[in-house]
Structure formats: structure tokens, C-alpha cells
Batch of 2 targets.
Target 1
Amino acid sequence: MDGTLFRSVNKFFIIAFCLDIKSYKSFMHRPDSFFLATKMAAPLTLLLIVAVTIRAVLFRSSLAELISARVEVVSPLNAWKRVVEGLALLDLGVSPYSGDVFHETPLMIYLFHFTVDYAEIVFIVTDGITALALYLSIQTYNKDVFRKQKYALESDRYSADCLELLRSPKEMFYIPLKVAMFYLLNPFTILSCVAKSTCGLNNAIIALFIFCTLKGSALLSGILLALATYQSIYPLTLFAPALLFFLQRLYIPVNLRRSSFWFFTLQYAFMYVGSLVVITGLSFFLLGSWDFIPSVYGFIFSVPDLTPNIGLFWYFFAEMFEHFRLFFSCVFQINVFFYTIPLSIKLKEHPVFLIFMQIAIISIFKSYPTVGDVALYMAFLPAWSHLYRFLRNIFLVSCVLLACSALFPVLWHLWIYAGSANSNFYYAITLLFNFGQILLVADYFYAYLRREHHLTHGLYLKKKDGTEATLVLK
Amino acid sequence: MAAHRCGLSLVFILIFSSLACHSSCESLEKANEDTEEKQSVSDTPREVNSDGSIAAEDLNERRGRSTDAELDRRDGTRTSEALTPAAAARDEFQEELVIRPLHSGDIYASFQFRTLWDTDFLQEGQKVSHYRLFPKSLGQVLSKFSVRELHISFTQGFWRTMQWGQPFIPSPPGAELWVWFHDTSPDFCSILSVDGNWKELTNVLSGIFCASLNFIDLTNTVQPSASFKPLGLGNATDHRFLRYATLPREIVCTENLTPWKKLLPCGSKAGLAVLLKSEKLFHSSFHSQAVHIRPVCQDEQCTSKAWELRQTLNVVFDLYTAGQGKKEWSLFKMFSRTLTEACPLATSSKVYVDITDNPELFELSPATPLLSQAVVLGDRRTYSVYDLSRAETFGQLRSLNLLLRWKGDGEMLRPLLHAERYVAGFGLQTGEIHTVIYNNHPYRAFPVLLMDSVPWYLQLYIHTLTVTSKSRDNKPSYIHYQPAKDRHRPHLLEMLIQLPPHSMTEVTVQFERALLKWTEYTPDPNHGFYVGSSVVSALVPSMVAMNTNFTQDQPLFSSFVPVKEESSYFVRVYTEPLLVNLPTPDFSMPYNVICLTCTVVAVGYGSFYNLLTRTFQVDEPSLPLAKRLANLIRRIRGVPLLT
């Protein structure tokens, strides 16, 4: 009696939900341009206008110079001052890579060689492009999620009592806008843009790569991934999620004995490696020497510049015993690449979440991180807003991150200008900041896995004796 | 066998240099005597000098004995041939002391000792093995490392150009070494060997002069493209054969003076060198000693080459404070010695006193009838000359003690070129180097070459370089910039700037301070890091016609830098060295930092590992202890278990 009632109520909910889906679907099937023009264009335009205004005002204020000198915002890899220095060296007839100031890639020099006078506009536009790409990617992703959820519901793959875990079009409607807002109005992004850190350009390339991947264009995705790799090496770990996404999209099972799997993998790898070779060759022909390889990639890997930043490397290697240096630089660099394969195995059904995890891991463990890198993965957080109920220590983490962001400039001032603190103070804050980031990412990972578990096993789990069960990792 | 001996002698040289490096100078002296004793066993012919005085004979004997015993042993058959041309080669030694009363009330004393030798160290196939007046230790160094020109100076204190005028031979605070290597074959291989030679040379010189020149390495060596041209014969232009390095932190003291004095033919036993007592020389405002070796013309036609060794010692005594407010000085007061004889080996031995301002300013006794005029640094000066080789100079007391009493203060002619430098900015993140160059010439503009060598840990931003004269932008007509490579080479910035007449030109460039590895900091890191002086080299328009005929007999101090044209003279001005603070890590923390950072990484690893390898399961609480014990017994009894 009890069971049948529950079932009928359940059916009713599912029908209601499907109706909701239908309305959503009819809405989604309208032409995109019309859709943008009617419902979402206005808030998005408003958002872009606000973001551009904030940036333009900050560029014109005296704060711009102050911000561009902050070690949290710019690193030796992407400081605007160093780009200008590289251009000045080029003007003097000296190779920018003959010194140890300039570490941008050759394509970057040529980009700014022509646009150095409009740098501010370039950076504002770049941020806009990133936000737009993220907006469209998440919109596509949501459609995808919704479609899959519908199929799963129709094939009864979800447990009966997990209705409240299902995502509704209403709640998903504003997520792309929120993502764009999280990126554009995040103080970290604003600071990064006002400091003219080239990190914003790398973010744009990664965002476009995600967009092309989610739109299903393997060639463009390969090219953009190659470009992102060329810019800062680390994004090469995004190869795995992109490949998984395409395989899933083309309904090719991940099976090492299937020739179709290998065919597509090699095809995508060829596109990626081919464009990487072309881009690198192009840089060689632009400058006529391979000097940029040690100066850009050697610099990223061997971490010779110990200028403080928000990462884990600088103080560790400043205090390192000389004969352990190589060992520990290998250990620390491996961290970025180490998690790719296990994560790909664990999340092979969820490549977009895998992309988020990889970007977050890169921004935590890269050798010269800046707040711009943090901003990129933070922009994805609204996309996982449905995980909120499973997050364990989001309050603690937000407090830690907020407090650290406020304390960075304070302790920097005490150390560098006031002389009343020493390097340990600043180091402690970077340590805590990274600890907070690790907690945040691990927490989202946990919540994602838990939700997936609940979707298949039911939300309200019971013990053998019928009492309410607690879920643990075993 | 020959190779074996060669190896032996190399080992010998190595042991010798390491002894010199590590032991104090007393032990160096001892080692020197030891080798000399050993060498005297080999039968080298004695030199008998023509002037025949006992002292001279004695000293000559010392010199003669120091012929190269190792080389003799190596090619015993060639000994007699090798000795003949060397013995025939003409050499001469000159010494002089210039005393210039400065307008500030200080006294500037400048010693110059010149040894001239008509031989060629670098000639192929000819081994120089017989040394008379020229110090063997330096001669060997020249031929081994194929050095063409060598300039080394050790300076304690800073020359105050605005109060003291231009020095005869300028030098920056600390140690400075610049060497032109012989460019026999300008192929790639010989350029590579220059770096190796330079490294070895600095280590050998470090032993010879008891100085920390071994700290000169690639990180503080530069190859200036224009500022340091050879001063001797030949017009080498390939700056890949030039090496320049300064050690602004080097502290100069007695241990550097003793080996320097030993290079003199008479040591400190006779001649002007008796005045060089370290307890007085280092109780002064400024002390600088230098060695300059270069090839010069043998005669007016310049048919063959001669090697010139100039040892100079400049000292400024602050007599006003030392003499309890009485402005009067004498040789005895300054050096606690008087002069009694010339060095018997010297062909000329003179003391010059600058009396251009006499008698308005001071009065000199004993007076001398000998006067000399010379054009020095664009100014015609008159000197009283005391010739020590003449017996009447010493008078009845058989000693010369010059005495001078000040009568009043006079106005000094302002030096036409002057430069200073400082660091601006606050905090330990960035800063700005300001170099200010003054042209005090009332109506002539002239170009100067500014050279800056900045260590790599101050990252210069060349795009922030500004040059302003009279609050207007002054674009340098030539810029040579070599950016630094971290831990490999310093920044080198050379500029040709036109200085407008009667102007002040300011050169600024911003830099960023690097955080170093904890092992890269010097002891007492919070004292700061020194940045060597900038060098301003210029041809300054002269007020009077300069003397271009440098073969003509003239005082030594006026003939160091060759004068190419009458209308201008060469001046080099060194600015102050900078002392820059860098951010420091906590030196007591390495273990803590390694542990803490690894902990954070491990937290990341641990949480990901957990989530990756484990799966979600419903938590079934384990039975209480009593029930488990009961179950154990029940299992033995074969009864159904409790749940």
C-alpha cells in the first residue's frame, strides 16, 4: 500500500517534470540568435557594460599602476612590464630571450608588437571574449546535461527517491549568465585585467578551447589546446578530458581493444600535435632561433625566479638545500600532471567536470600562479551550484580564501615596506591560500561523486536494520 | 718525460698559488724565499750592474737568482740561448712621488714606479726566462695567459672629485680588474679559451695580491664594447678579448700592500718605497694601489715593442684632522719616514711638489731651484722637483724631509666632469638607479660614455631608461645593452650621451629586486649588496693645449693615458658604488618550510587519493566489543551468531 502510493506520487512528479522539460525544450529549440536577443541578451549586455566600465575606470585611475606591481596579480611569466621590456629589447636590436626578464612566447611579442598602444582595449576585449565563451560553453553543457538527464529518467536509470537531485530548467536557466558574471565581476579577474597580465589571454584561449570542445569541433579544439599548451605547457593535461568528451559525443566507448577508439584518439592527437608543431615552427621562423624554448618552458619547469607569488614554489625553492633542488622541482612539477590519468578514469563519464578539476589543479600547482588563474576555475563554480548541498566545508573555505585575499597585501606591506614582518608571514598566507584552494577543489570533487552515487543508489539510504544510514568513503 | 716535468711544474705553480691564497702574507713571503733558495742551486749567471754600488749589487743578485728555475730545468739545452737575448734586453726603472696640496686642506700623494723592459712576452717561440727588474711572477702570468694588457687596482675609500679634483689615475672603490687578452687568432676557439684564461688569471692574481679576486666569475664579468680601450700599443677593437670586473665589497689592507711592494725592484728597502709604511698609508681618507701592465713603443719610431709595468699608489691624508687643527705637514708627519736615498736601480727618482698656488697658499721648505711645468688633465701646473739621485738634494742632514705650511684657503678650479649616483625608492620590491653627470664647462658640450654593470639580482628594465639634461629629454646616440642572465652574467649598459655645456644630466633606470636562494646571500645579508661604480669616460675639452708628443721626457704621472689630440684630454670618473638591500628569506627556516609546504601538497594528494581510490558505502557500525567477544565464543560453540 505504502509502496504503491509512493510510486504513484513519484510518477506524478515525473510527468510534471517532463512537462516542464517540454516547455524548456520548446524554448531551447528556438533559433539561438532570437533566443539571445529576447531573453538573455539584455542581462548579458548589461553585464558586459558593467564589466567594461569597471575596468575602464580602473585603467584611468591611479590604482592601475599599484595593481600592476602586485606580486599576486602578475608573475614573472605574465607581467605587462616584462612584455614592454621585451618589446624595448627588440627595438634595441637585442633578442628578448637573451636576458632573463622576458618569458612570453614569440607569438605574444608579435601580437603586442602591433597592439601595444591599444593594450588596454585588448585586455578588456579578451576578458569579454573569455566570459562570452564560458557563457556559451556552459549553455551548451547545460543542454547536454539536460538531455542526458532526460534519457536517464526515461530509461529509469535514476533511483526513485532522488527527484530533488534532478536539475530543473528554471534553476539552470541563469547558470550561464552567472558563470559569465563570476568571471567578469570576480575581483581577481578585474585585478588581473587592470594589471594587464597576459594571464587573461591564456584564460581566453582556454575558454575558447572549452567552447570549441563542447560545440564538438575537434579540429578547432585541437588547435586551441595546442595554443594553450604553447602558451604555458600545463594545459596539455586538458587533452584527456577533451578526448573523453569527443568520444562520448560520438558514442565511441573507451575500450582499448576497439579500433574506432584508437582511430579517433590518434586523429585528435594528430590534430593537437600537428598544430603544436606548426605553432612552434612559426615562432622559430618569426625569431629565427630556438632561444625561446629554454627561456619560456625551461623557466616554467626549473623555477629560477623566486619572486614571491601566491603559489607553493617560491619560498620552498628559496629555502631548498641545493642538492635536493632537482628532485623537488620534479616532485612539485609532477603534481600538475600526476592526477590526470586517475581523474580521467574516475570521471570518464563527466569530461566537463574533469576539465574544471584539471584547470583548478593547474592553477594550484603551477610554478608561477596568479589570481587570474584562480579566477578561471572559480568562474565554473556556478555551474556546480547543484552540488551545494553536498559541500562539507564551503563556509570554512570561503572564509579562508577571503581572509587570505585580504591579508596578502597587508603582510606584503609589513614585510617589504614596513620591515616589521619577515618573509614567513607572507609565506604562511600563501600556504593557507593554497590549502583553502585544495580544500575547495577536493570538496567539489567529493560532492560531485556523492551526487552521482545518490543518483544511482537513492538519496535516503537505509541501513540493514532500516535506520537512516550515513555514507562513508571506503 | 717532458710532459711529466711539465705536469710537475704545473703542480708547483698550483701549490704556490694555493699557498699564497690561503696562508697569510707572512707565510707567502716565506714560501717565496724558499723557492728563491731552491732556485739559487741552479747555476744562473750573476748580473753585475755598471753603477757598481754595493747595495745595487746585492739587489741585483736577488733579481738574478730569481731566473726561472723551472723553465731552465724543462729545457736545459736551451738555457744559454734563452738567457742571451733576455740579458741583452734593456730594462729601466723610474720612480717618482707627486705631492699635491689640495684645497680642502688634505694632501694628495701619488707614487708611480715604472719598469720598462724591451722584450716581448707573447712572441712565438721565444721563452722569456731571465728577469732582472721586471717581477717574474707577473711576467710568467702575462706569457701563460697571453695577456696583452692588465690593469688592476685596489682602493679603500672614495675619491671626492668635487673637493679634490681629478686624480692622476682614477680607480673605483674596492677592487677593479680589466684585462685585454692577446687575439692571435680571432677564431671561435681562441675566444672560448679567453674565458678559461680569465678564470685562471683571476685566481692566480688572487694569490699574487692576497686579494679575493677569486670571487670574480661570470656573474660579475662584463665585456664593455666602448668604455675600456687598450691604453698601450695596438688598436684592438674586438671586445670579446676584453674582460672587466669589479669587486666593490673588497676591503684593501696591509696584506694587499705587502705583495704589491714586493714587486718593486728595490722592495721597500730603498728609494721612495721606504715611505710606504702601512700603518700610515691606511690611516688616510683615500688609499688606492694599482698595477698597470701594457705594451708601449720602445722608441719614437715605434719599431719594436717594450713592456711597461706601472705600479701606482695614491693616498690622500686628512692632515687637518690628524694634525690637531694645525695645517702643516712634512714627509715625516705623513709617512713617519724621511727620504735618504734613491733606489740604486732606478734611472730616475724624483719628488714633485705642486706649487702652482704657491706662494699664496702655502710655503715649502727646503726650497729647490728645480722647477718643472707639465700639462696635467687639461691644466698647466708648476712643480718643484727634488731629484733624489743627486746628493745635494739631501743637504747636510743626509735626509730629505719636505715641510709645508698652509697660509690660507683658496678656491679650487671645479673639475669639468663629475658624476654621482644613488638609489631612489623605498621598500624592497623595486627601486631606481639615478646617475647624475655634471658638465661644468661653461660653453663646450662634449660626449661621455657611461658604463653600468649591474648584478643580475637587480633586474633592470631598460624601457624605463630616461636621460634628461636641463629638464629635456636627451636621447643617447649609442646604447649597448646586454641583459642579465640569472646566475650567469650581469647587466651591461653602455651609452654615449652628449652633455650640454654647464648642465646636469640625469640618467635613471628602474630595477626590481630578486629574492635569492638562501645559500646565495652573503654573510650579513641585511647589510645589503654592493653594485659596482658606473664608469664615465670622456674626452674633455682642454683649457690649454695638451702635449701630444708622449715620447718626450715628461713626468710619469702626466703620461699614463696617451693624448691623441691637443684640444682634449681623457678623463675617467667613477661614481660611488651602491649598496642595495634585497628581500631576505628567513635563514633559520629551511626545515620548517620544506615540512610545511610538503604538508600542504600532501593534503592535496591525500584528499584526491581518497576520492579517487575509494567508493561510497553505507556505514554499518561495527558491533560493540562485548557482542564481538560473545560471537567469538559462539563461533567456537557452533551456535548462531548475535547481530
Target 2
Amino acid sequence: MSCALLLLLMSLALAMGTGAAVEIQRPRGVPLSSEQFYEENKPFTCLDGSSTIPFDRINDDYCDCRDGSDEPGTAACPNGSFHCTNAGFRPAFIPSSRINDGICDCCDTTDEYNSGATCQNTCREMGRKERESLQIMAEITKEGFMLKQQLIHEAKRGQEDKQGKLTELQGSKKGLEEKVEALRTVKETAEDPEKEAKERHLKSWEEQKELIRMEKDKTRMAEAFLELDDDADGYVSVAELQSHLELDPDSDGSLTETETQVRCLSSSSTLFLPLKSREEFLSHYQSLICDPEFIWICRNLEKEIGFDFGPSAEFAYLYSQCYELSTSEYIYRLCPFNRVSQKPKFGGSETNLGLWGQWAGPEDSLYSVMKYDHGQGCWQGPNRSTTVKLTCGKETVVTSTSEPSRCEYLMEFTTPAVCQEPASLDEVLQGHTEL
Amino acid sequence: FNSMCVCALRRQRALSLLSQDENGVVLSLGADSQRLIVSAKPFRLDIMEGREVLLSLNSRGLLAFEHLRILEDGMWEETFKSHTDSKPNGPSSISLDFSLPGVENVYGIPEHADSLKLKTTDGGDPYRLFNLDVFQYEVFNPMALYGAIPVMLSHSAQRTMGIFWLNAAETWVDISSNTAGKTVFGQMLDYVQGSSETPQTDVRWISESGIIDVFIMLGPTPTDVFSQYASLTGTQAFPPLSALAYHQCRWNYNDQEDVAAVDQGFDDHDIPYDFIWLDIEHTDGKRYFTWDPHKFPQPKDMLQGLLDKRRKMVTIVDPHIKVDSSYKIHNEIRSKGFYVKSKDGGDYEGWCWPGNSGYPDFTNPEMRAWWASMFAYDQYEGSMENMYTWNDMNEPSVFNGPEVTMHKDALHGNWENRDLHNLYGFYVQRATAEGLIERSGGVERPFVLARAFFAGSQRYGAVWTGDNAAEWDHLKISIPMCLSLGLVGVSFCGADVGGFFKSPSTELLVRWYQTGAYQPFFRAHAHLDTPRREPWLFGPENTALIREAVRQRYALLPYWYQLFYHAHHSGQPVMRPLWVEYPQDTATFSMDDQFLLGRDLLVHPVTEEGARGLTAYLPGKGEVWFDVHTFQKHNGAQNLYIPVTISSIPVFQRGGSIIPRKARVRRSSSCMEHDPYTLFVALSPKRFAQGELYIDDGHTFNFDKHKQFIHRRLFFANNALSSRNLAPGSQFTTFSWIEKIVILGASKPSKATLKTPDGKESLLEFDFDASMSVLTLRKPGVNAGVDWTVVLQ
């Protein structure tokens, strides 16, 4: 069978809407857009310009052009492609190797014209189904996109709230820090004269002691010291002094610590708080600033604000949420921006399938895929990881999970946050019915 | 001795007595002045041709026959780790030595991950033949692997011979040589000084039980030895054409959706494939002949989906059967008493994939008949005619058995496993292949892949080299492993492309596809724990490289099919060491990094990491070879340095040959059935070439039963290329025609005339490439099944 099918004249009813039939003729497998290159009964130049052949060599089931352009309607060229018009559905190119291979590839059956395969023209049916599903998708997209706007709005507000809260917290932290700082300064400035006064006092006290000692030296030296040095440590402490009422200035019978200070510092006007309460106050503020809870809140707010929640923060609502899917064996749990895990339904511990890594979609839709990695290690294998594919949906839900490769999980997740602005349905449908 | 067979000729000839004395007899073996000298004291046999000794038996006096004993309470028991071998007949063994004067090269006795030319075993372990499920085997090692074929070939520039030691018990083979230790200088000195010592190889076979039952194949040519061996064990099963195409396997394709997605992936990336495989996880709890109800709820829908694309599936059916009273297969085997028994008489049980398992006694013909009946479409639920079978673990593998196999004192009827261990896998594959034949009413050719095998397994399907690893050494060793199998009858051999264990680098994966595309059984496979590695997962460039390798395979399928037809017909190996075709060229004797497909294609795949070039040996003084990609001509008997890139697959066509191809590569081989042929005519320096074209329906036994095939001789001589019928008694109609004829090494004609049987003559257009001397005849258009001649003037 030498398959000398030269040229198929295609009769196509154009402009279906108007009912007017225009007849066009072009070799089998040639798209309308290339028709001008195949001029009837004129020598044909291969589309790559590599050679020129008589017109009857087009679709003669022998490959003459290196680029396969002389056999658009046969399987003769290894690199050729065949155009199916698919009226009622969507036109398509298929590799030449699928022409007459016994498998129906074009819904208009034009690829199987000589194989004996019985193909049904399914274009209209497919077109109808596609329109239906496109319509459904369009509705979902539309609603999803509206939800997304809401999400964006909420995210913006949430973000502002959080920023505000953080600013506030940071502000109050700053205020506290300033207070602490002020107190510290006060304390330090207070302490300087204190120190001086204390030193002065000690000095005079020593002198006084010396005087007393001198006075009582000869008679009571040993006794006196022993008397003062209650704990016999060889020094005379404040406490030791306090126990000696002969030193009591107000003669109330007790020598208080404040008195010792006042006594020491009575000349200084900067003193406005007892030393002890100032220390307490300072540490109170300091503890406020260093409070783990406070730090945690601040850090989380900073972390959350710093997350990449998408171009308009539309994914922010997923933060600190978790979504579950129950399969026959496991419950899968996705906590976006945090972790993915798997728990056996009938007992057994939870397995970490990955921690939030990064957005991992292709360049043109980065935010369509999430990657979670560094999960629990596999025996003789890698650490578990999960790829989450996001598709547009009205609801936020995990729709499926699988483990296509050992310890590499795949999760399908619908969310309005990935819904793109819908093209008008007419546009969508029009794009698919071109001849 | 039970018997000894000397197979020198296809036709049996009676031995005739030449002379006799009190110490022996001299018998004539018929032609070629061959004599057998039997001497009694000391016992030895010598086979002579003229004054030359071809082979001597027991010349070293190592004949041994340890007789069976009556068991004395536990006296002979042997323990290995926690296992005990009760040895009810006491220790037993048999042994015999063979001396091969003038022989320096011996081959065969697969399966070992070792060089093609067998090494001497002095000071090391002998080559061991004992079918075992070896975890992560090592290369360049004489250790036993999954299969055992106790056949050794000897070869010298003068003669090729074979020894078939028919014994299925554990067997060891020792090889020593009087020249092995000599340096090149020492050998040269011998030559110059005319040293009287001729090279000699001595071989000793030892088996644990059974009888001495040996077949000697006297050749003298490699082709003769192949025919002689085929007359003993049969020839390669002729596989369905699609089984020679590409197979996509993985442990495991998870569910029906996964299968559909992988299938679609091949179409999306325009890579052809014919078979997708399902490993053990597809079953319901490792109960073979069943499907996991969640993952594969509608197997027929899945199979129909593949059938719609003219593709096929293989499911795994292993011989270990889950002991489970709710499992039909188990209940039937148990109730029929078909299980192997333990030494105590109960059903033998061991651990394997399903947990506790029984092992059907495949040595029992009734069991095999029952097993075969389980493949009937109404028995194996969810099966369809495009579903074929894989028998793994058929050594058999017993996870908790000694050396991960069956206890030697387990009983197959009256026989201990000890006596027939290496035959178990053979019978598993046989019963399965018979089942696939029966389910089609004897019409369709089966396809069964098995891991364990024995002499004769070639009659039932394909084998592969088991659980290899994603390492360059494992890629390299795939060549000698399959060459060794081909020499002893098993042509349908392959290694897991990519390597089973571990994960290959992209370069290794690409190189493995390129190598596998030119080996008989071409299947990618991967361990459960490895990352996915379908061909399109490594970026567009690597996808393109893999696509090209697979496409080269598909284009060459007519030639592969023809080679398998010959393997089936006459026992000639498909994949051959160079010495088989160039038996006098000593340079080829230990070559195992390149090989021949049939006579006419020489393949030297790139198996070195980061290779920039390689040296291929093109044999045949005075011959020429044509690079199949560039058509460049090279002279024979030279080491040719070839610069290589990542896309290179060095392949050469022998000048003097004609190879048919189908240039229209489609998504499966079935889709290419009616496509036209392109003939590649590579002219010899004397401007001669010949080849063949074999065509049949590709999948039934009608070629055999009803002589429905086309077999034509194509020859080019005196500037004319003709097609003549080689099988006048046959009948078949093909739609295929001759699309193009490419003549390599041609000169430019003034005209080319096509003459057809109806007496018509027509001029063919042609194109001549003067730089490469390539003449392309445009569209002869003649049907591939008729006589025709093209005359160049």
C-alpha cells in the first residue's frame, strides 16, 4: 500500500453563526494560518526554506522537507505536526506520528482517515462539556475571586491591626525601656553622690571611730572593738553599728537603715526614693520588657508581618489555621506556613511530613505551590517533604493527598486566595471555538 | 556415570568400536576423525580429533561420588546460623574434572556479576551456582545470584566447545589455567623458545547431590555449539514484538490514577512505550492474582485505557502464597496438597512479602497445570488480554530461610530441595507461561519475566539481572551478564535501566537508557524508596536524550524481531560477544564493553562517567563498518577512538549487511505495525550486502502453526538490490511497504530502476551525498512482502 493520497480538499463551513458557507481548500493537516504557504499547483518551498518540491509531493506519504512541512497530513516525517480543526471544540496540533496510528486523537476524527479505527466525532460533546465545566470553573473563579478580594481586604486590615499592635507593643516597650533608662540614669546619678556620701560618711565614721578608739584606746581598746564587732569578724558593719545605740541620732532607741542613709546623705537633695523601692521598680519594668510572653507575642507578630502571604497578602488568613483530610488509613493535616503531618487513623504517632519551606510554583505562578520540607527522616531515604498544589475554589479545603515517590508527598488544596480575576465567560468560550 | 552425551552433529550417529584392549576401548564418533578413548585404570575419557586431544575427563582424577547414607541419629546435621539442615541421606557430593588443552578462554555458567571471560579461581572462591535472592549484590564476584545455568563454553582460535553439567543442586565450578599466571613476557618467551607447554584450562565441577550427567558439545564453531545446546534444552521463546519495545516499571505505580498519569506523561513528552508494570503493592495484601480494592478498584477500566492506546501491562505474580484461610489461592493449594512440604511432612512455610507464606511445588505437573489455569480470564479477576506476568522471587526467596532461600531438606514430593533447588524458578516461569498460552486458547504468545532461571528457561520468556544498583559499575556489568546468558541460550536478557537500588545521577540514567536501548530486554525499574524517575523528570534536555535513545530502539524493532526469530529458530544468541563472529581474532576474546547484535550491528555504549571519548574495536580485517548516525565509513580490525558527547551512542553497521528499520516511531510498537520500512544497505568493499526481513502478526503462534509469516532475503550484488522469498511455504499479507532505501558506501548512479513482479519498471528518484557516499532511493513504494529488484546504472 503506497498511500499515494495526495491532497485532501477540505470543505469547511465557516462562519457557522451566519449560516453562510464559504468553501476553502487546503492540504490535509494544514492550519488556516499556514494556508498561504501551500498554494495549489505551485512548487512548495519547505517552511524552513531548505528545499523546494513540486506541489504533488505535499502529503504524498514521503518526507522531503527536513522540517516535515511537506507532510502535514501524513505520518511520513518524524518531526511533523498535524492540525485538527475540531469544529465545535478546540483546534489542536498533534505529532504526525499520531496520524493513522489506530488511536483517535482529534475529536473530529480527522487524524484517523486511513487506519480502520472507528472514531466518533466528539467535538460538539466535548465542546459542550468544556463549556459547562468552564462555566462552572468561571463561576467558582468569580466567586472565589470575590472571596479573594475580601481576603485581601481582611488581610490588609489584619496586617494593619497587627502592625498597629506591634507598633503599640513596640511603642510601649520603647516607653518602658525609656522609663527604665530614665530610672537607671536617676539611679546612677543618685548613686554617684550616694557613693561619694557613703565614702565620705565611711571616712568620717572611720575618723570618728578612730577618735573613739583613740579616746578609749588605752583603757577600753580591746573591749570596745570587741563590743562593736559583734560577729567578731574583725570589721565593724552597719548592722553592728545599728546594734550600738550610742550611735542613734534620733535617740528613738533604734538605728534604721534609712537613718543610716539619711544620716549619710542628709546633705544631698537628689534623693527622692528609698533605694530599695527604686530597685524594685526598675526590675519590674525590666521584667516587663523581658517577659517571655511579651517577647513571644512581639516575635510572632514580627514573623507574621514578615511572611510572604502573596502579592496582596491574600494567603494571610491561612496563617495559624489547620486543615485536615481523612483517608482510609491516615488523617493528613496541613497547617499552612507551619507544617504538614500525617497521623494513622487507628493508633500510632503523628509523622511530620515537612515544615514550611517556601513558595515553589513556576516562575509565572509562584504562589500556586507550597513546599514543606525537613520532615521526619525516612529509613534509608530522604527527609519527608510535601508539595502542596493550590487551586482556585470557594472553600479552603485539602482535597487529596498522595505519595507519588517514597517520602515525597503531594497535597491538593483549594482556596479562593489563588483565584485569578476571571476573564469574561464569552472571552473564555470564544478562545476555544476558533476554526 | 548416568550418561554422557557427545553432541557433535545435529543428526545422531551411532558410536562404532574402533579398537579394544583390557584397559579400554576406542570409539569412533563419526565424522572428522573424532574418537573417544575410554580408559579403565585410571579411569579417564579423552576425546580426540586426529592426533589432537580436544577434551579429557578425569585426567586429574577428581571424579568423586559420595553415596547416600542411612541416617544415624542426627549424625550428619549441619547448622548454619539459626538454621539446621537435617541431611537425611547424609552428606553427599559428586565431582568431575575436565581438561581443555589449547584453551585459554572459558565463558558462561551464569549467573554471576562478573566479566564475560571467566577468571581462574585459584586461591579464591569457585564460581557458585545456587539460586539466591541476593540483597545488593557486588560486581566482579563469583558469588551465586538469582539464576543458574550449568553450561560452560570453551573457546580458542581453533575451536569452540561446550560442557553442560546437568545438575540442579548447589554447584561449584573451579577454573585453573596453566597460562593464567604468566606475564605477557613469559608467554612471549615460551613462543620464541618454542616451549612445549600448550595452554590448558582445567575445570572442576562439584555438585551437592544427584548424578553425573554431562553433555559435551564439540562445536567446532560457536554457531555449532549454540545449535548443539539448543537441541538439548530448546531455543528462545519468540516473544510478542511489543515485549521487545520499552517497558516502564517502578516499585510501585501507586494506583489507577498514577498509571493513567504516567501513561499520559509518555504522550505529553512524545516518548514511546509499550508496557507499564505493577509491582507487589498493586495486590490486596500481597495476595497474588488479586487487586488492592482502594488503589485499583477497576483494573479492567485501567487495562482498557491502555488497550485504547495499544499499550499493555505486566502485573507481578510471585510464587510465595500468603497463608490465609480467606485467600482462595492458598486454600486451593493447601486442599490439593500442592505446597512444598517441610522435612516433617507438614506444609513448608516461610516469610516473604505477605508475611507467613507457603510455596507451591512447581515441580509437580499437576500443580503446574492448576497454576496455569489460574491465569484464565475468569479466574484472574480483572485481567485482560493485554495483561502479562512477572515472576519475581522465584529462587525461591524465603526471608527467614538459610541464605534467604528454602531449607535444603524441604520436600518436593520425594525430592529434597537440595536435589533440584536451581530448577524451582524454571518451573515457576514455565507454569506461568503455559497459563498465559492457555488463557488465549493457545493462540497468543506469552510474555513472562522471571528472576530465577535454569538451563532451558529460555523457552518460557525473559530474565533480568535482578536487583542491581544505580552505579556505573552495575551499568558496565550489565553487558557481560547478558552476554554470558546469551551464550547459554537465554537471549531475552536485560538489566534494570537506571539501577534498582539507590538513585542514579542524571548522567548515569541517560547513559543507562542509551545502553538499555541496545540490550534485549529494555525495562526501567526502581526501588520503592527511590525518588521518581520517569524520563521527563530531569529537565527538557535530558528528556530529549532519553526520548532519542528510546526512539532509536523503536526504529530498530524490525531488526530486533528478526534476531529473536533466529534465536527462536536456531538458538543463535541475539546479543553476542565479538568472538562469536570473529572466532579467530584473539583481540576480541575478553572484550565485554562492546557487543554485537546479530552479526551486523556493533554497539559500544558509553558506560564511563564524564566520558569525552572511547575506543571501540571494529573487527574484521578487510571489512568496513558504518557509523549508523553519521554514515561515516571505518576500516575493520582497528581500535577507533570516538569522541563522545552526552548524546552519543556509538553503533556501527557492518559493511555487507542490510538492516530494516521503521523510521516512523509512534507511541507504541503496535501503532507501528503497518508502517513502511527503510532499508539500510551497507556495502562491503566488494560492493555486496545481504540481510533479511521477517514479518508476521507480532503476537500469535500463527507464524509457527499456520506458517503465516514473511521471510525474505535482501541482497545487493552487481549493482542490484533484490528481495527474494526465503520461505516459499509461508503466507502472510502485510500492509507495510518499502519507504526508502539508504545505500552506504555507494557511488552515484545515472539512474535507478525498480522492477516489480508484474513486470512493471519504474524510475526511482534518488539523492546522492558525495561526502559520505550515501545513496538514498526515494519511495520505491513496493509492498514489503513481494519480490522486487532495484537496478542501479
